[in-house]
Anion-transporting ArsA/GET3 family ATPase (Thermocatellispora tengchongensis), 383 residues
Amino acid sequence: MMARTAPTLHMDAILDDRDTRIVVCCGSGGVGKTTTAAALGLRAAERGRTVVVLTVDPARRLAQSMGLTELDNTPRLVTTTEAGGALHAMMLDMKRTFDEIIEAHADPDRARQILTNPFYQSLSSSFSGTQEYMAMEKLGQLRRSGKWDLIVVDTPPSRSALDFLDAPERLGRFLDGRLIRLLMAPAKAGGRNAFKLLNAGFGLVAGMMTKVLGAQVITDIQMFVSALDAVFGGFRQRAEQTYRLLQAPGTAFLVVAAPERDAMREASYFVERLAEDRMPLAGIVVNRVHVSPAGGLSAARSAAAAEDLESRGEHLLTAAVLRLHTGRMQLAAREHREQDHFVSAHPTVPLAQVPAMPDDVHDLDGLRRIADLLATPLAPSGA
């Protein structure tokens, strides 16, 4: 038995609250986070809400869980419901989202200069942090559009799942950094030819950069930074607005975990990180919990009965079943202990358990079964 009993996480209460506009699912990889996000989206749609599920995970798990072949950067209608709701889904395309920002916030000539710039093309595809910046931007776009009354976000399967929370600060450091100011100096002093007019210290640094990176690369970067200056300023402001939106009461963070040591440790990290950033945590979903229909038969009694039958050479099939039950109960006991550690460390965090399923989810019927289990979960361990 657990030393403490966790409060029960009531999922329908979250989904039925019309003031809840954003649900963010976060957690480590391989714990059923994407399936949970998709199931919550379907459940909300079937209760009358207009929902979009946004996955920031570049894998195709969301599309697969909904029985779709692919998703892209545009919300796609998955299904409408008898309750008047609708479910949409999309997968973040960070480069396309970056392009959309440029096209929306720059005049046509400047947009063309940026989009064709070699440095921008590299930045928008592979620069560290771009995915997090674009996740914040896309979430803000979806919320400002007013088309959906609930947005469910499926974050990447790692600790970097919460890196998008750092997007405004990291973007500010990038824009205000010494290197960017240095590269902006020629444009602000009168264009690329103004390199020659700047002081000797700047000329020395510029010369060193040119030797390391090459003159054309320096030129590309300067042109990019000069053209993008006004656009990035607006992006930083929007990212900060979205960050504040995530802290507001209309947002609910759900940590998704499996009842295993590493996954529960990651869950603790997420809970602590969200508290540090003052993000509203709704609770934790523990997926793939192993239970037995014969829970009243302990592992010890089952093992003893199996040993007795085997020693007498009788009912060997029954003995084999008892051995399987023994293993199942021992696994369940280990899972209870891992959850016990979490609850002891975070006794006020609401918790729901979802039993392990025999198959992966590949269609809406499968998602509906998961959604039902989320809404009527197992009693938390120790209850």
Q: What stands out?
A: The chain has 15 helices and eight strands.
